[in-house]
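testing teh design pipeline on a random one, pls ignore if ur not involved
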């Protein structure tokens, strides 16, 4: 599988990279979270802009000053499991504003739910700024059919995703296996992808990425950002124990 490289990281080579979300709601909490994350075994961090209730300018300045890992910037809408109730137009406007904060983060998450044209436009803008592009889709209710999951990953790739991301909710073990099968097929066809089966039932999907081709896995730091996330140190121990 060909790898995607950015900020000194090679996605799709070796074990999946561990990403710790930064979920702080204000500046003092973000500073505390950054200090705690610094000691965790993670290759990159995800700043959840939707969770931050203060002035984004101050948060971005703190990230520029204190972040010792590459940063994935994510503005997650309520529709996709996040904290911001935004129309597609408002989402594009705010993400475009974040894309003006050069030097603060190295990758950005773009929600497929904002619309295909907007996703493609935002992906192009991000790439013009030298950023890696994650286009994501989350289903917190169910695991779609395999054909639907394949189509979603292909669509995200076609719109400009360097790393298409799909997160789904399993209702039975067969759902988890379906997601893993689709991941293997997509990684072979498209290159590195990010997938996860959420909740406790899907935790195995967070540790088997080297087998399936999912190149990044999210692990809890001070807070989890999604159901089923494993603590960063525990996840590192699991990945190390599974290494060839």
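output:
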């Amino acid at each position: 599988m060909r790898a995607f490289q950015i900020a000194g990281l090679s996605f799709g080579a070796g074990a999946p990279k561990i990403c710790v979300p930064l979920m702080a709601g204000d500046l003092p909490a973000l500073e505390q979270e950054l200090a705690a994350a610094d000691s965790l075994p993670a290759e990159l961090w995800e700043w959840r802009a939707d969770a931050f209730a203060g002035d984004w300018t101050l948060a971005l300045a703190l990230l520029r000053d204190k972040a010792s890992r590459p940063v994935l910037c994510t503005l997650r809408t309520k529709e996709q499991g996040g904290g911001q109730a935004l129309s597609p137009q408002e989402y594009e406007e705010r993400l475009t504003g974040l894309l003006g904060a050069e030097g603060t983060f190295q990758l950005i998450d773009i929600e497929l739910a904002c619309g295909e044209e907007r996703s493609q436009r935002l992906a192009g803008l991000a790439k013009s700024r030298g950023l890696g592009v994650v286009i994501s889709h989350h289903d917190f209710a169910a695991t779609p059919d395999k054909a639907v999951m394949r189509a979603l990953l292909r669509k995200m790739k076609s719109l400009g995703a360097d790393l298409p991301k799909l997160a789904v909710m399993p209702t039975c073990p067969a759902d988890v296996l379906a997601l893993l099968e689709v991941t293997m097929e997509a990684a072979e066809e498209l290159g590195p992808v990010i997938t996860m089966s959420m909740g406790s039932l899907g935790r195995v999907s967070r540790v088997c990425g080297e087998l399936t081709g999912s190149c990044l896995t999210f692990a809890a730091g001070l807070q989890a950002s999604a159901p089923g996330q494993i603590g960063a140190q525990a996840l590192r121990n699991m990945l190390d124990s599974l290494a060839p």
